[in-house]
User: Fold Flavin-dependent thymidylate synthase from Carboxydichorda subterranea.
Amino acid sequence: MAEAWIHEPRVTLLAVTQFTPPSHIEWETDTDNPAQQLIEFAGRLCYRSFHNPSGRANAEYIGHLLAQGHLSVIEHASASFLIEGISRSCSHEIVRHRHFSYSQVSQRFVNEAEARMVLPPALEGDPEAQAIAESVTRASKEAYARLVERLRARYAHVDDPSLRRKLARQAARSVLPNATETALVMTGNFRAWRHFVRMRASEHAEAEIRRVAIAVLKILQEQAPAVFGDFTIRRHDDGSEVAEPGYAYE
Amino acid sequence: MAEAWIHEPRVTLLAVTQFTPPSHIEWETDTDNPAQQLIEFAGRLCYRSFHNPSGRANAEYIGHLLAQGHLSVIEHASASFLIEGISRSCSHEIVRHRHFSYSQVSQRFVNEAEARMVLPPALEGDPEAQAIAESVTRASKEAYARLVERLRARYAHVDDPSLRRKLARQAARSVLPNATETALVMTGNFRAWRHFVRMRASEHAEAEIRRVAIAVLKILQEQAPAVFGDFTIRRHDDGSEVAEPGYAYE
Amino acid sequence: MAEAWIHEPRVTLLAVTQFTPPSHIEWETDTDNPAQQLIEFAGRLCYRSFHNPSGRANAEYIGHLLAQGHLSVIEHASASFLIEGISRSCSHEIVRHRHFSYSQVSQRFVNEAEARMVLPPALEGDPEAQAIAESVTRASKEAYARLVERLRARYAHVDDPSLRRKLARQAARSVLPNATETALVMTGNFRAWRHFVRMRASEHAEAEIRRVAIAVLKILQEQAPAVFGDFTIRRHDDGSEVAEPGYAYE
Amino acid sequence: MAEAWIHEPRVTLLAVTQFTPPSHIEWETDTDNPAQQLIEFAGRLCYRSFHNPSGRANAEYIGHLLAQGHLSVIEHASASFLIEGISRSCSHEIVRHRHFSYSQVSQRFVNEAEARMVLPPALEGDPEAQAIAESVTRASKEAYARLVERLRARYAHVDDPSLRRKLARQAARSVLPNATETALVMTGNFRAWRHFVRMRASEHAEAEIRRVAIAVLKILQEQAPAVFGDFTIRRHDDGSEVAEPGYAYE
Assistant:
């Protein structure tokens, strides 16, 4: 029976900034988008310009910030995502981004004997390559299960059963492949997300992480169009999606 | 007529994390506090323990994270505050904290001729000291106004009136005192706020920033009691409030 | 007698990265600049390209990193500066940069009765404006001294003399002007310094911090020409210096 | 023939802070350790206490900073290490630390067909477990080589040979195991290193990363004894080394 490969990451929005305007400050804006309201509010505080002397709409105001490179203002808004169905090589690239907070499934603690595998995009439509990959990832999981069993016996003297499991699993995981599925919660402010998308939705990015970045971008474009609307998504030569920002500053 | 001193900072919550649990994951918790839900959700993902094998309530679960020092999990929740009525010496201390985002009233752009002054807590109840301070802060604002006038004349050749104002104000501000009021929007995750409160609500902190930290703490204890409830607020010898955390880890 | 204004910041290099190549790795480069050696070494590790397949000189190699935006590699090198003769308004802007480490003279602890004042660049050559500023900054220091005296009397019940001084000084400083001199040690990696110089040596930057950024840049261009050589320093309309980078990425 | 397992990480110091005291400041200290000199210098600047009113030796002075939790001062000193002979699961844990700079061997670019494997410490002295692991890691590398070959054929239409290699390798790496050796250059300041060692040399840390942390600690204790000397290294029940700090603050 064929391995049930994972073909696509699953990206789910968990949280995005809400905003309660302070009742003691007189201020009006033309959007009901809370994250964009907070950004405009914070920006206007710097200049005490709540009376909107230039008569800008919220989207214009934020566009101006992005165009001028006043990006610290968009840091007040943030978003959290649940990212599932990605490989451990993809998560290794993701967690290199240092301006985010992460909570990731731990291979030291979780039993990976039934872990699913993520198919690299480049293997789509190539049954022979998939067969090569499937055969060895299956063998890896079997070896993992055998090692866990041996190591739990070896650590039989450890009284605490959860410590015993941890000692066995953290060593046995060494034979698991990069393709092994992982999941994480990833939180960051809008400036960090703009940087992530710029780097990882680009055509130079690796194919799997690019899918994550595109999925994140699509959600953020819905959630805060004034902050992410300048990114254009287009088809690459190979049919995959890539995105590029309209504004240069980071 | 006496200067209308500012006696207390004003701290207003602008935003705190909301949470939408993903519909495809089966999970129940006993709190309806959204920030605490997100924290528990992220923590449980690491161990794939959504079935709650230890039968912990949400507050217990978070208490366990704090006690063990697993503080990265509380980073998924964040809060934004509007902080008004603080002096520039206080804001100079505040912005030294590098894990926050700030938007602050700019003395390069804003007209400070009518700026209010913040009374240092130690001058409360000492009319003579207040008179000394008032006399010189008033003289400083007058000197500021005269310098702005001279400099705008000096920069008469600059066509753009807003640039001309900026050039005048950014130089004239040099005579404004530390007591000059400022305001800022300050955003950070719960781990950063715990660190801020630990450092700045302590008895060793400067009196004005301590008031800010105590005001922040009181709001966060309402908003996320499981995350900030271990801090105890007490009266210091001099009648002011100080706070100390129950958990040691940062 | 005229106040002895400070006219220029003083920027002194305290430390810059040294490098010991590991004896077990065969590798040659054409520079004896240690910071640039470390950067090339770290970059080559990523591709296991110590044999230099493209035959690039060190400066070319680093230029390629900067042009491609592979800026994380230049983070391995860092520099520390002693920055003296700047105002407290300037230091307030400086410490907003969150990727640096700072140690700054504390107005809570140090006696500022004899503090010197920093002349805003825009007041150069304007004796009348200087007279306005001098008169009020002198009055501020006198008020400071009187407040310290009163507060030390008020805190006579505090046994610890250094605590008593701190309580007095941290309140009395509220009347000191932005022009008051401060000094700090500032440490950051080369990526952070490139960002600082880009933002603060630009023509849009405030005049005093621009002088700091230009002074830092001149030293770093000597210390690591391959990393900072793309910045061009030119005269602005008003005779002051501004700088712009050759490479776009941050 | 048996796989040549890697049994230990190799940790090599590449760089540590040097210091040039500014000639215009009168100051003496009793150490010739440059990193410790810089730390004392920066600390003394905050209080303008270059005359050493308490008569403290350098090591005492730094011990006092650590005891009081004034840890920002030790951030001025930094160290870079080359870390080799670690597994990809170990590097995945390492790069979660966000206050460091990293340059790591890229599996997207480098040919891993001859990659060596890191033996998990728990498999030492268990030839049967090693045989299980060896058999499957060898199969993984063979599958990797076959996939690279197929994918380079599939990407034959890509003109640029280095892009073609990258496309093949970044997909084929999905079958490589966690045990695959990697190497990285890791740079951070002394505060970040103290945190890393505290977390990763503890008895709760995973066995392989603990070895890295202990090796780093031993070098830093030589390089800057006043900053790292409070850590005590001892033997754990299982014969491995663990370390604990003497000072509580982070």
Observations:
- The interface with chain C takes residues 12-22, 24-25, 34, 38, 41-43, 45-48, 72-73, 75-76, 78, 80, 82, 101-106, 109-110, 183-185, 187, 189 of chain D (CB under 8 Å).
